[in-house]
Amino acid sequence: MSTLQDLVAARHLIAPYIRRTPLVPSRLLSERAGTSVHLKLECLQETGSFKVRGAANRILALSDAERARGVVAVSTGNHGRAVAYVAGRLGIPATVCISERVPPGKAEAIRRLGARIAVHGASYDEAEAYARALQREQGLVFVEPFDDPLVVAGQGTIGLELLEDLPEVDMAVVPLSGGGLLGGIAIALKAADPRIRVVGVSMERAPVMVRSLQAGRPLALPEEETLADALAGGIGLENHHTFRLVQRHVDDTVLVSEDEIAAAMAWALREHHLVVEGGGAVGLAALLSGKAAGRGRPVAVVLSGGNVGQETLARATAGGDRPHA
Ligand SMILES: *Cc1c(COP(=O)(O)O)cnc(C)c1O
Fold first, then answer.
1. Residue 245: CB within 6 Å of ligand 1?
2. Rg of the Cα atoms in the chain
3. Is the CB of 179 inside a 6 Å radius of any atom of ligand 1?
4. 157 CB contacts (<8 Å, ≥6 apart)?
5. How many other CB atoms sit within 10 Å of the CB of residue 152?
6. pLDDT, one tens digit for every residue, the chain (325 residues)
């Protein structure tokens, strides 16, 4: 499991490849929530999501021989983009496997970064099976999207930045899928003060980690269409790290509806002129809907990504922040 020291080491290593993203106060959300609310803008991160942090920390740890053979990843879009970007900057060949479900814009962005794209299967799990086969057959290094201590440590650098920018932070509201993001941030925050609350937010449609936490063991669920496409996919029935990490650290979980996600995307665009993708907006949706509430002390909400196509954005934001059919 990653430690605070691993996060500090990651921070130095990945600094040349990432942006130190801003933490901005949201006056309107603070008024609504009755406490000061700050937005961590990973939607402005290099490649459009925080995933570049973990991918950089993992890929920079490769040996020369591994770099020469290359890397393979499976992705709902953002992890693939992050892997393609880091591998491209280091001159390492990269193959990214995606399912037919991944929005075409996300696939195109990965291709433009110089990675080879393999479209395979109707779900994340099917694309993953194909990536594992390439790993075995071609001796490629499989870059995990979340279930790897180096990836977790990379994502956890967000927690270090939060503590610097908002030392009095009392609660972090974090999008939750495989748990690398939440787990990494929790390592930093809980080391600073175990009383800081960490709240995970997933979509109602196939929230695999939340159902697994409730069951006490990793589960698999059929994938469903959702605006939060970056959160779709399983946590691995053989999950090694992040299930236990999230189980240990998460204080609460919240599920948000498609309408609430759309409303949060619309709100971010209208009130903050921020393009936030569905998966990146679930934390905001949890606060705006009142499903997550602060304790009268400062709250940080992670806006984890901004990679959304213009059409999806237009559709999601067409109803303003009223409930959306
Ligand atoms: C991957 C991703 C998440 C979830 O991260 P996990 O580490 O899998 O929990 C959240 N938001 C966005 C935009 C992502 O790309």
1. no
2. 18
3. yes
4. 7, 10, 11, 14, 18, 53, 184, 188
5. 32
6. 899 999 999 999 999 999 999 999 999 999 988 899 999 999 999 999 999 999 999 999 999 999 999 999 999 889 999 999 999 999 999 999 999 988 888 889 999 999 999 999 998 889 999 999 999 999 999 999 999 999 999 999 999 999 999 999 999 999 999 999 999 999 999 999 999 999 999 999 999 999 999 999 999 999 899 999 999 988 999 999 999 999 999 999 999 999 999 999 999 999 999 999 999 999 999 999 999 999 999 999 999 999 999 999 999 999 744 554 3
Q: How far is CA 275 from the centre of its chain?
A: 16
The residues carrying an active-site annotation are 51, 304
177 alpha carbon – ligand 1 mean position (Å) = 6
For the record, the structure tokens of 56 come out as 């950089």
